[in-house]
Inverse folding.
């Protein structure tokens, strides 16, 4: 463990500068202080994704919000970093360690629409803002099912900026991650939480990634106390699907691993895991005496106009050990192979190799 002489030295936590990033990093900082007994200070870092005004699909999406943080880690300018897990490239660098994936927030997407409307109540031709090809594909497909159409308007900017498009009457609605709205205290403004049956979230959506340099093994061991093994298993399956599709985080790919409650399951680390008060795919806490033994992985790929979707699912057992990633990885790869066999590659446009 960390030498006692370092206990009074602040740990430097690298974070993006956005309101949401600072809020979620602040929550992790509080947890690390409680876990380690050490002070933690936030170090705000500007990433390329923050400064570029281009659409994420055009600048690649993958890694644009994390590269600067990772560079700071490797340069020793910060001790650890907090990322939105959905922003991380699926390949983990050897010189960095994904030390913890804390318990996930609600992974669903949320609609904030004028006049308190739900998606089904939006008028034909409604203008809905989102910068995500994944959301565009599924929202357009949903509108088609309703016998209507929407105009998916590409937007960028922080949460406040996006919501302002609706407040000013420029858009009929915007779609954002429910987790982000929760973390900045604006979830009550959502007019509808979108069911994963209609809109699957991005792989890893709602989860955070706590990363440090691989050489800092003592710190990684301490940060591991924040890890929720069930969240890690779920996002491992989702990201395995994304990797096997050879798609980046800006591709029109949605995925969600649902964990089903069963008899009480104990962590291999000895006794009930302190972070294992699980959250279901709807974001609510499960009962203390419930645990999970089965995982269902759903995936979707579609054209952004919603005219064609490939949507499949598979089930598997949750690993008995938090360190066992075999089953989640296999589930993701096998589901991706089924989706590719159904024509998924042709729906994604240029695949991110």
């Amino acid at each position: 463990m960390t030498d006692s002489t370092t206990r009074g030295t602040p740990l430097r936590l690298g974070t993006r500068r956005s309101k949401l990033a600072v809020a979620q990093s602040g929550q992790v900082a509080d947890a690390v202080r409680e876990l380690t007994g050490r002070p933690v200070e936030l170090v705000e870092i500007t990433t390329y994704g923050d400064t570029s005004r281009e659409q994420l699909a055009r600048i690649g999406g993958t890694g644009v919000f994390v590269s600067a943080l990772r560079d700071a880690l490797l340069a020793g300018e910060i001790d650890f970093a907090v990322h939105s897990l959905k922003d991380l490239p699926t390949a983990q660098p050897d010189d960095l360690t994904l030390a913890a994936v804390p318990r996930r927030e609600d992974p669903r997407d949320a609609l904030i629409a004028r006049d308190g409307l739900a998606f089904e109540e939006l008028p034909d031709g409604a203008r809905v803002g989102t910068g995500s090809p994944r959301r565009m594909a599924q929202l357009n497909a949903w509108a088609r099912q309703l016998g209507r159409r929407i105009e998916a308007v590409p937007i960028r900017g922080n949460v406040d900026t996006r919501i302002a498009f609706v407040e000013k009457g420029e858009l009929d609605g915007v779609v954002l991650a429910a987790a982000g709205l929760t973390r900045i205290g604006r979830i009550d403004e959502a007019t509808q939480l979108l069911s994963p049956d209609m809109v699957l979230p991005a792989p890893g959506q709602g989860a955070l990634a706590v990363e440090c340099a691989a050489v800092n093994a003592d710190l990684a061991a301490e940060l591991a106390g924040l890890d929720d093994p069930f969240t890690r298993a779920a996002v491992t399956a989702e990201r395995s699907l994304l990797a096997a599709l050879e798609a980046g985080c800006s591709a029109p790919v949605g995925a969600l691993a649902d964990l089903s409650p069963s008899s009480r399951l104990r962590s291999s680390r000895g006794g009930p895991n302190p972070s294992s008060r699980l959250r279901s795919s709807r974001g609510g806490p499960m009962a203390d005496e419930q645990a999970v033994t089965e995982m269902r992985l759903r995936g979707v790929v579609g054209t952004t106009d919603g005219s064609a979707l490939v949507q499949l699912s598979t089930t598997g057992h949750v690993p008995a050990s938090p360190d066992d990633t075999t089953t989640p990885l296999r589930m993701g790869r096998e589901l991706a192979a089924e989706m590719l066999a159904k024509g998924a590659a042709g729906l994604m446009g240029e695949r991110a190799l």
Observations:
- The mean pLDDT is 85.
- DSSP finds ten helices and 13 strands in the chain.
- The longest helix spans residues 19-36.
- The CA atoms of residues 182 and 188 lie 8 Å apart.
